[in-house]
Specification:
Order of helices and strands: EEEHEEHHEHHHHH
Number of domains: 3
Radius of gyration: 36 Å
CATH topology of the largest domain: Butyryl-CoA Dehydrogenase, subunit A, domain 3
Number of helices: 8
Helix content: 55-70%
Number of strands: 6
Distance between the termini: 11 Å
């Protein structure tokens, strides 16, 4: 079944003390195009994210946003060896110089080398498994929306195609009536010339074929939007030929109706992956 190109999905990210969220949106686009909104230092994720998304989406403008909402600013550690050295020298000083008093914890943590604070730096490779897991959840939600849109578009285009077949039958019946009437009033040579100039049997056959071809593509999986647009262009070409060959009000009205329906098909094809 065809898919549309509009969708949205999101999920939360949890990686140790790091919290965040990911959002993915898609809009109509002629090709596959992806835009990233990533935290500083996370540009290395662009390749993996693109490959992961492109494996499930063939066409559309994709916007991936990753936000880190909560993370420890610093990792703090205590150097116990340094503390032991300070305490050892404290005892020596007290003995050698007959000093009194003890070092308090508040004194110790102010001494150089006892407390080490390091800024937390996120590595793209380290956080990628968590991002991938959340991206998968968000992407499934987005694809589900695109599938629902595709069903709605297919239903709408099926009605248009049915209307096209009715117009094709109307043109076929009208041209036969025209030739039947002209045969009675024209000389043989004039009638044969008229019949040849107004012969649109090939155009009607091809137009009917394109309607069937369009229907088949609507049932196909994967990206078919470009194929549908191409078929609609061919429909337009055959319809133009019919309009130029047969100069009749009823046929002209049917041709105008066909062109209008084909234009609607082309517009809808722009919304299909």
């Amino acid at each position: 079944m065809i898919k549309g190109m509009t969708g949205f999905g999101s999920d939360d990210i949890s990686f140790g003390k790091i919290k965040g969220g990911i959002e993915i949106k898609s809009q109509n686009h002629r090709y596959f195009d992806i835009v990233y909104y990533l935290p500083p230092g996370m540009s290395a994720l662009e390749g993996p994210v693109r490959d992961f998304v492109n494996a499930q989406i063939e066409r559309g403008r994709i916007m991936v946003s990753l936000k880190i909402t909560d993370k420890p600013l610093q990792n703090i550690s205590f150097n116990k060896d340094a503390v032991r050295e300070y305490l050892r020298y404290t005892k020596i000083l007290k003995t050698d110089f007959d000093l009194s008093g003890d070092l308090k914890v508040s004194d110790l943590i102010r001494l150089p080398g006892v407390v080490e604070a390091r800024e937390v730096v996120l590595e793209a490779e380290e956080i990628w498994p968590a991002v991938k897991k959340s991206l998968d959840v968000a992407l499934k939600s987005l694809v589900a929306m695109r599938v629902r849109e595709g069903k709605a578009l297919a239903k709408d285009m099926a009605v248009i195609l049915k209307g096209m077949l009715a117009e094709i039958k109307k043109i076929d019946a009208r041209t036969k009536t025209i030739l039947k009437d002209k045969k009675k009033s024209l000389a043989k040579e004039e009638f044969l010339s008229l019949q040849k100039g107004n012969d649109i049997s090939e155009e009607l056959t091809r137009l009917s074929h394109y309607v069937d071809e369009f229907k088949k593509h609507l049932q196909a999986s994967g990206g078919v939007g470009k194929k549908l647009d191409f078929v609609a262009q061919e429909m337009q070409r055959e319809t133009n030929t019919i309009g130029s060959k047969v100069q009749d009000r009823e046929v002209s009205n049917a041709v105008i109706a066909l062109k209008s329906k084909i234009e609607k098909l082309r517009e809808q094809a722009q919304n299909i992956e």
